[in-house]
Design brief:
The structure is a homodimer. Chain A is α/β, with parallel strands linked by helices. The first copy, chain A, has helices at residues 14-27, 40-47, 51-63, 112-115, 139-158, 167-179, 195-206, 221-229, 243-246, 253-262, 284-296, 320-323, 352-366, 371-382, 385-411, 437-446, 476-511; strands spanning 36-37, 67-70, 74-77, 125-126, 189-192, 212-217, 233-240, 250-251, 265-270, 301-304, 329-334, 346-349, 417-418, 426-430, 449-450, 452-453, 466-470. The first copy, chain A, is globular, with a radius of gyration of 25 Å.
């Protein structure tokens, strides 16, 4: 085992600590050329840190030429010697069967998204999802839209289309966006396969390996996954859930400024409205400060607006894009939370030059987004079905959010807290320090209750005592029952823990 | 202007020549630290080479640390000095308006795909497309499938799905693939957004910047675009169109072996059936030799099978995947050529470990492929509509191919040649040496005839005297008329050229 010791309380990022300690071991001669160092997964396990932390440290050391990965063999300490090409004919030690594992370009590809979409056993009450409630999909209306567009424009829909998007959908979206206070030209709008693709395109278009992105911590795991596999460093900026501490909830703007001051930040990625996982919304003053910083440091901002249309209470706030006078903001959005995630249709808007570049990148990525779904959604909007469906869903989600808050207030034990979401699909719960939500989940699953441990959402410094509760796809009755059961379990585990601590202190006394 | 001189006749790749000459200019002191060198687009124009050539040379020099790009300022010669971080607060010289251009991660993003899909003026006869004929789309049958699946499984379709693909479509495809002689497990099949995405996923999963791919030359521009923007080097392997020369048409297997011997090749990308743009099909002996080479050099093969189901004459050949006993081949395919390109649905099959890695990469790229189109195509197959539609389209394309060949044989002037395609959607025409198809196109467009100059398809050594004719989306009458007009123009231009050459030789005599 390597003599490494990371300090989680330090203000120095963990990956920087790890990088510097590994470098020191090489300089001291403790590690020498040819020595194998552990795989990132393995070392992450040993150190109890997120794999991205190790991967980031390794990426930096690799770019310094200090370590090198050999496909299929591992990662090794190396000098700066130039690699010469050796004649290739290789004998096949395994009867000629291809070993694809030896070809993987990257070990930073992770099952992170599958992990946050676990299988739900039948009968379980799952607070895991942040997705719309499928029982309420207006299938008949949607089917009518499909028939109309295939009858009217079927040949055009089924033929190859243009990368920027299907014309009728772009027109409907421009009109929707005008309602948000955004007066945009068609060239400022690109249709995507959804926000996940939008982040991937942004990453391809504007970020190179080694670049740094300021990202909320915790954050959407799909964003963390993209940045990690593109070898982009994520600079974690805390998300405040307790308004008493910094004066506002949401992205900690003071911490963001420190990050901008101390690093060459290439991009800020932020979800100002109903941030996943915490459910927080950034107040307007903080939005303005964020944009001021973006202009001062000339850093573009990617605004993830996927939950913004799901405001369930309080008054609407202008989006960053609506407040953006300097053209710093690219806003990404999608139908996944307000309509149908099974259709992969989203969009992004921004400065024309940014959108044009994203269009070119999308062209070589997958030509264009599926046109049948684009046409169907255009018709769904044109007929007013989307507005009606969204209004109905907000009513349902509002009632479910109220049911969840009522149950939490009634049953949650002392020294726990949770966010007061004004919209979106999730709440964020903080358990007493020292509690591990992943351990709690083991017992909860036995009782048929599921939630997501908070650690899945952190790119750095995971807080094991946090967890996410999704309220949108569970009905009120099951919410009431599920939260009561969850709280009973939590109280039981808290008592068990206190008893354990008391016994431990008794034991210590006995030993002394 | 830099004193650079590339020799197109040399066996040394152009980008290698360029790299070495630039390096020599630095070593000789003609170029010094801080000197700005032209943008790749500019230098490509000056040298009359493809931009990828310059981009590849620059990529190598950059990885050597000899040049460096500064966003928004250009590319500069540099020493190996370590860049220190300078404190960031930057003043905004342009009133705070974001300059997105200064943030582009790459200048190797090109309009390559739009170029091969030009706008067609009304009334023109366009031989540009390699796409199905939309007049013959069976809209009523497709609409019935949509209604059936939305009624039967609408909630499941519209809810978020799994990355590997929609179950019923996977089952239909496994059965289709059994008909090709492939007995596969479900874990060996991944649904994609089409072949363009499949190539992008393959690139992300298995290739790193600086890796080399052996690629047909000419090749599908969408593949060239992906590799270029991922900073993957393409090693051009000729495609034989004259069976008299190497004994077979298609990828030159001898040249491939030379490339494998002389380079560390990470992957072979090949379209054995009805290669785009040449229309050639690789004979079975050459397929076997290709697979032997892949095993000997332990290089994986990506088989683009997108046109394989469009065999219009002659007997079917087994695919590389069907001949692959070592698990070296990942086959990519799609509905785009046999059904509807406006639906972005394709698939790839291969060894389980390769497919599993591609699935993980797809998950963070766009979660999953649109489920409405997946479900509709599953139903379209289940009802036998796809088989029926494909049989009908093949009959139509067979007749169009015959019409095109008849017109070419009747009207084409001497010293031209074209490929005898046994399937697919395109023929490849070679004009006399010295002719430039791009110039010919200017005159052809004036007469209402469009085709694609061959140079769009080359990653290296473009042959300006080649062009692609697509026959699938033009009816027989217009083919006859269009080819006759095209040949008339060609004869006219050839006479003009001969006259010019005669006059020039007269002029020379007069001068002497």
């Amino acid at each position: 085992m390597l003599p490494l010791r990371l300090q989680t309380e330090s203000h120095i990022p963990l990956y920087v600590q790890l990088r510097d300690q590994l470098r020191a071991l090489v300089h001291s001669g403790d590690l020498r050329t040819g020595d194998r160092i552990p795989a990132s997964r393995e070392l992450a396990g040993q150190l109890g840190v997120h794999r991205t932390t190790v991967a980031n440290a390794y990426a930096e050391l690799e770019s310094e030429g200090l370590i090198q990965g050999h496909v299929g063999r591992g990662t090794f300490i190396c000098g700066a010697q130039i690699k010469e090409f050796s004649p290739p004919p290789r004998t096949t030690g395994n009867g000629g069967v291809m070993r694809w594992e030896s070809l993987f370009a990257d070990d930073r590809v992770d099952e992170v998204l599958s992990r946050v979409m676990p299988l739900v056993p039948p009968g379980a009450i799952a607070f895991t999802a942040a997705r719309p409630s499928e029982e309420l999909f207006p299938l008949e209306e949607f089917r009518r839209c499909l028939n109309a567009v295939v009858r009217r424009e079927g040949r055009r829909i089924l033929q190859i289309g243009s990368t920027d998007g299907y014309g009728p959908l772009k027109e409907e979206l421009l009109s929707l966006l005008r309602g948000d206070g955004l007066n945009l030209r068609s060239q400022q709008l690109l249709i995507t396969d959804g926000c996940q693709q939008a982040i991937d395109l942004v990453c391809k278009a504007f970020l190179r390996p080694g670049d740094s992105v300021a990202l909320e911590n915790p954050a959407y795991p799909g964003a963390i996954a993209i940045f990690a596999s593109a070898r982009v460093r994520t600079l974690a900026v805390g998300v405040e859930t307790d308004p008493a501490r910094t004066g506002h909830v949401g992205l900690d703007i003071g911490a963001l400024e420190t990050v901008l001051l101390q690093n060459r930040v290439k991009m800020i990625f932020v979800t100002p409205d109903f941030h996943n996982p915490t459910g927080t919304a950034l107040p307007i003053a903080a939005r303005r400060r964020l944009l001021e910083l973006a202009v001062r440091y000339q850093v573009p901002v990617i605004e993830d607006a996927i939950y913004a249309r799901l405001r369930l209470r309080g008054s609407a706030l202008p989006s960053l894009k609506a407040l953006d006078t300097a053209g710093n903001v690219v806003q990404i959005d999608s139908f996944s939370k307000i309509a149908f995630p099974g259709l992969r249709v989203g969009w992004c808007v921004g400065a024309e030059s940014a959108i044009e570049r994203l269009r070119l990148v999308k062209q070589s990525t997958n030509l264009h987004t599926d046109q049948l779904s684009q046409a169907a959604m255009a018709e769904f909007m044109r007929r007013g079905y989307l507005a009606r469906h969204l209004a109905r869903m907000k009513k349902v989600y509002r009632s479910r959010l109220a049911a969840m808050e009522e149950a939490l207030e009634k049953h949650m034990p002392e020294s726990t807290s949770w966010t007061r979401a004004e919209g979106g699909m999730t709440l964020w719960v903080t358990l007493p320090p020292g509690f591990d939500a992943a351990e709690l989940l083991i017992h909860a699953r036995e009782r048929g209750i599921l939630f997501l441990p908070g650690r899945y959402f952190y790119s750095q410094h995971p807080q094991p005592n946090t967890l996410r509760l999704g309220f949108a796809s569970v009905d009120e009755k099951r919410i009431a029952k599920g939260i009561e059961m969850f709280c009973d379990l939590l109280k039981f585990e808290m008592r068990k823990r206190q008893r354990g601590m008391r016994e431990e202190s008794h034991a210590r006394v006995a030993l002394v």
